[in-house]
Amino acid sequence: MSASYKNTKATDKSATKNSTLKLAEPNDSPFQGISDPVLSTNAEDADVFSPGGDTPGNINGLFRTDANFKIIDGGLANQKIDRKAKTVTITLRKNAKWSNGDKVTAKDIEYPYEVIANKNTTSQQYSADYNAIKGMAEYHTGSAKTISGITFPDGQTGRTAVIHLSKVTPAMKYSGNSFIWQSVEPYNYIKNVPIAKLASSKQVRKDPLFTGPYKLDKVVEGESTTWSPNKYYYGKAPQIKHISINVVSSNNIDKAIQSNKYDFTVPNSVMRGTDYKQIKNAKNYKMVGQAALSYGYFGFNVGHYDTKTQKNVMDKNSKMSNKSLRQAMMYALNLDAVNKKFGNGITWRGNTLIPPIFKKYWDSSAKGYPLNIKKANQLLDKAGYKKRNGSKWRSDPKGKPLTINFGAMTGTSAQAAEYQDYLQQWRKVGLNAKLATGKTMEMNSFYSTIQKPQQNTVDIYAAAWSLSSEPTPTQIYGEDATYNMGHFVTKKNTQLMSDMNNEKAWNDTYRTKIFKQWQNYMNEQAAVVPDNFSYNWSPVNKRVKGFDMGAANNNFWTNLSLTSSSMK
């Protein structure tokens, strides 16, 4: 599968100007409608608002990148890392403007940090990595009103922000790192909205501003967004004059493509192997894709989040705290068969928590958890999970009955079949596993359950991470990461993640070695376990020209044109 569609037909200027580019967002729930990347917590919002950025996944983004996600000059801003002075200087281009014509300012670079670290924020982006910015920890705890480590050499309305750090890290060379935030906030436009209320404000949900090639015309709550060119955009003008993005349920997406209703599905949105099987031969479409910046995983609930210290804590006595139980549950699954049956070549069993798109860091030799029923039974027996008094089910080592609640999101019929297969495999090794709440859970209620600081509804869950383009995992598995929903924390895990960005890690060989050690350590601990890797792919209608989802295409939206006014 290629990341681009080389359509050699001539552009039809009239169709390009007068037609609407129709995009689908495959999802079984309404999108939440949070346009601001600082506050948004799910990929669906990033998808439906993506024409607000140069490229999908880069709403109001500061930087451009090369094919390996390395930051290069030429975007809304340029970045300069000074290792000696321990500073990162971000300089906006002269013609950087918001979609209402306001100038993008140095304060707009700084304000996201205030929103992320504010005590009353609803943002879930904060992690220990931000403490490298001077004054950030003090601002986060509320003992300082401003972030002392971000300065403005030519004033807040100027073009330059300097970030002063206690350390500069190799991750900072790449987009999506967890030390330097990479989008701007329209400070002037939102400054009067309390940070706690920002996510529900009309400035974020109804009339948001963007720096990308398109401006938002209308949002129909949970259903659709429509777009037209942003005349204040600094870069190449968009060729297509209208874009509409509609949510389409996973049950309807294949039919919609087969009947030529959409030009393509939003890049990065979830298209499954079952969809691929149905539509790979659709005659007016070309299948385009690359290894995904995401993976499916299983998470075990092994602790809680202490709201006072704002840290995750492992609970020694939690139901899933026994490593042998977790390993056994993973060996009991036949993920190779499940992915072969339902993945149709688009998904395959994952072997680590770093996906293969990170060629340098992914450990291709790691085994992960292939099916091994014998090993699963041995691990359970040895750890004291035994069938007692003629019971069909194993009880815990203290002899107490054990029921394992599995949390899963409502999705396609193929997913429902996968979940049943997992339950069946766990029951095969004597574990009384059931769906938490008795049925699958709607996406928003699933996440609100597992994101509670403390919960005992779900013991193990299946979910997926959509990743940033720099693989340091502190924001999802760090001690103080709010995204660490299973609450797995150990000294060694913290140390390994820290070592990925220590002074030695400027040497790539060392950095790669640490990434591989971390992958093997996480596999062995089995508190978060890979389920599958996949292609990020999209069916692209043959009237679309200039479609390229590769990381080096920094003009995704403006390179698009049409060869015809009809999708047939």
From TrEMBL:
GO terms for biological process: peptide transport. It comes from the Bacteria. Gene3D superfamilies: Dipeptide-binding Protein, Domain 3 (3.10.105.10), Periplasmic binding protein-like II (3.40.190.10). InterPro entries: Peptide/Ni-bd (IPR030678), SBP_5 (IPR039424), SBP_5_dom (IPR000914). It holds the Pfam family SBP_bac_5. SUPFAM superfamilies: Periplasmic binding protein-like II. Keywords: Signal, Transport. Residues 75-477 form the Solute-binding protein family domain. Residues 1-37 are annotated as: Disordered. The keyword Transport applies. The keyword Aminoacyl-tRNA synthetase does not apply. Belongs to the bacterial solute-binding protein 5 family. This is ABC-type oligopeptide transport system, periplasmic component.
